[in-house]
Design goal:
Hypothetical protein af1432, about 55% helix, about 10% strand
Length: about 475
């Protein structure tokens, strides 16, 4: 790669990553600095270890798939196959439904263990920058992070030797300062969830019915309910013929068969009008789900990949793309979850502000609207209270007067809580009015699915609110 081209690649990666993180107002958790401060720190460490422009570019891009709505496919189309492969190596493959934090971290370590030395070099830089930030600002969670960092360092020995030594030196210094001993896998320190977990006091104690309803929502629909039977081509067919057939049927992705078995994906964008064998891509780690997998697993795959592959009776024959999340079943499912959240908000308002003491917190116009709706419902013979006539936005306005609301609902600040509630209302409105929810609400959908997949009980259902934080914070 020429020097100018190499510099252009790194410059484009920096701008692309910075803009993507800015679009979601992604900030460092403790300092509230723009997230590109972390990316710059990681890129600087990587640049000290290698002059490879594709590795330097991947350093800037390494968090995009986990923290934004971009996929590995988006990275590949913008920066090429090798950069995308590096980002893929650095992207977690575990799903929330795989188990607790310790189980998920173990799955992700195994994935990282098989990564290239270049990807491991980037991960070393990422660990170092995060370690400094976390241990400086949050010693309590820092102790947990140091335990997890030690386990990761054990599989990163193929990364840059200098960075590897520096990472262990940093770990030793911070572990000594915070009084952390090296833990074995499965130790108590690794079992717990992060310090950002939502307090169980956020809502009333659950009833058994509430728990059952929440668990049911996590399982009510499966991949088989929305998967489309995929177009499939034998590996013996020519690139030209496959391209022509896919274009005629308006299909952007299909399955490739070898001796009757699905072995990978054929993308229309990869094909040319040539008699050569088809270009194809093998299935990636974590890209395939069983037909019985809940929608939460499907959504998790689609946060990382362009396509989710569905397997039934040992055969990989179905495909799901993000646009398939517009399916009526998915919309019904999401609307039910939003309704559960709204019920949680109502209960909290009733407990904090009994006897309608919340009324002065609404504007006169919003209160008049609610009173008019109450009169109309009672005229129709419906039994309801004034609080039942409030909109979701009204309820969030009231709860923003509760100083504990941001902390209990996993928001960093009152402003973040206000914005998060606005995003939840946006999702609800787009669901109610059959608007596109993938283009505008994907980050919220992914957060909701991840928390639901963890088997949240009714007393914790508030934590599936779409807090203004990156997707990786919910892992």
């Amino acid at each position: 790669m020429k020097t100018d081209d190499a510099q252009d690649l790194v410059t484009r990666a920096r701008a692309f990553a910075s803009q993507a993180h800015r679009r979601i107002d992604h900030r460092r958790k403790y300092s509230n600095q723009p997230y590109e401060v972390h990316l710059k720190g990681v890129a600087a460490l990587v640049s000290s270890a290698t002059s490879d422009p594709e590795v330097q570019a991947a350093a800037w891009l390494h968090d995009l798939v986990e923290d934004t709505s971009l996929t590995i496919g988006d990275i590949r189309r913008e920066f090429g196959e090798r950069v995308a492969a590096l980002v893929s190596d650095l992207t977690d493959v575990s799903r929330p439904g795989d188990g607790n934090r310790a189980v998920r971290r173990a799955i992700d370590r195994l994935h990282l263990k098989d990564a290239t030395p270049e990807a491991k070099t980037i991960k070393l830089a990422d660990l170092m920058d995060n370690c400094r930030d976390i241990c400086r600002h949050d010693p309590r969670f820092g102790r947990t992070y140091l335990q997890e960092m030690a386990l990761l360092l054990n599989v990163l020995g193929e990364g840059d030797e200098s960075l590897y030594r520096r990472a262990w030196a940093l770990w030793t210094r911070e572990a000594t300062r915070l009084g952390v001993a090296l833990a074995e896998p499965g130790s108590p320190a690794e079992e717990g969830d992060s310090a950002s977990d939502v307090s169980s006091s956020a809502t009333d104690d659950p009833t058994r019915d509430g728990q059952r309803v929440t668990r049911r929502f996590a399982q009510v629909f499966t991949a088989s309910d929305i998967a489309a039977a995929a177009l499939a081509f034998d590996a013996s067919q020519s690139q030209q013929n496959i391209k022509s057939a896919m274009a005629r049927q308006g299909v952007a992705v299909a399955l490739l068969l070898n001796q009757g078995q699905s072995v990978g994906l054929v993308l229309l964008e990869d094909l040319a009008d040539l008699p050569d064998p088809p270009r194809w891509r093998p299935f990636r780690v974590g890209q395939v789900v069983e037909a019985s997998a809940p929608l939460t697993d499907v959504i998790e795959v689609l946060t990382r990949q362009d396509v989710c592959v569905v397997e039934a009776f040992g055969a990989r024959s179905g495909l799901i793309c993000r646009q398939d999340m517009q399916h009526p079943m998915v919309r019904m499912w999401l609307f039910g979850i939003v309704t559960l959240i709204e019920m949680t908000l109502t209960r909290r308002i009733e407990r904090l502000f009994p006897q309608e003491k919340w009324k002065p917190m609404l504007s006169p116009g919003r209160l008049r609207t609610a009173l008019a709706l109450l009169d109309e419902r009672r005229r129709l013979g419906q039994q309801c209270q004034l609080i039942d006539c409030l909109q979701l936005g009204d309820k969030s306005t009231i709860l923003l007067n509760d100083p504990d609301f941001p902390r209990m609902f996993a928001f960093k600040s009152r402003n973040a809580a206000k914005q998060g509630m606005q995003e939840l209302q946006s999702l609800r409105n787009n669901l109610a009015h059959t608007q596109d929810i993938v283009a505008s609400d994907w980050a919220q959908i992914a957060r909701i699915a991840r928390e639901l997949a963890r088997g949240i009980e009714d007393r914790q259902v508030a934590s599936i609110l779409p807090a203004k934080k990156p997707l990786s914070d919910m892992r």
